[in-house]
Design brief:
By secondary structure, the protein is mainly beta. It has helices spanning about 20-25, 30-35; strands at about 10-15, 40-45, 50-60, 65-70, 75-80, 85-95, 95-100, 110-115, 120-125, 130-135. The chain has a 10-stranded antiparallel sheet with strand order 4-3-2-1-10-9-8-7-6-5. Strand 6 (about 85-95) and strand 7 form a beta hairpin. Helix 1 packs antiparallel against helix 2 (about 30-35). The longest helix is centred in the N-terminal third of the chain and has 9 residues, at about 30-35. The chain is globular, with a radius of gyration of 14 Å. It starts with 7 loop residues before the first strand and ends with a strand.
């Protein structure tokens, strides 16, 4: 069975527990408050044939780019997020994209999945879970 194509532009419409997630990453109070006010856009380019994926997270404050091939480990530079680097692998679990980020923080990673025109993101670190929902742009 073929995997879904995640390509598209998605705008955030819901967010839950982001402050606690950022606190678990040791992000300072002031920066957490700014981040929690942001409404990021995800611009995703996905080639299902090769497994190549580019995820651009765009905000008015800071942008974050992630380029990878599904199933291949890479060194992820998270300086823009929390000043760390991780050994990261993104793989398929059914139709979900599951990311494992090995580094200083235990249990760090995320899961993306599609439901209709919505892109769901669940972020995890040290037992704390935050969720965001994005709606595909027309």
């Amino acid at each position: 069975m073929s995997k879904p194509n995640y390509s598209g532009v998605f705008h955030m419409v819901e967010q839950d527990n982001m402050d606690a997630y950022l606190a678990a990453l040791d992000i300072n109070f002031a920066l957490r408050k700014i981040v929690c006010l942001l409404k990021p856009t995800k611009d995703i380019s996905h080639d299902p044939a090769t497994g190549s994926m580019k995820i651009r997270t765009i905000t008015t404050f800071k942008n974050f780019n992630m380029d990878f091939k599904i199933g291949e480990e890479f060194t992820e530079d998270l300086q823009a997020v929390d000043g760390r680097t991780c050994q990261t692998t993104v793989s398929w679990d059914g139709n979900n994209l599951v990311c494992v980020q090995r580094g200083e923080k235990e249990g760090r990673g995320w899961t993306h999945w599609l439901e209709g025109d919505k892109l769901h993101l669940e972020m995890r670190v040290q037992g704390v879970v935050a969720k965001q929902v994005f709606k595909k742009a027309d």
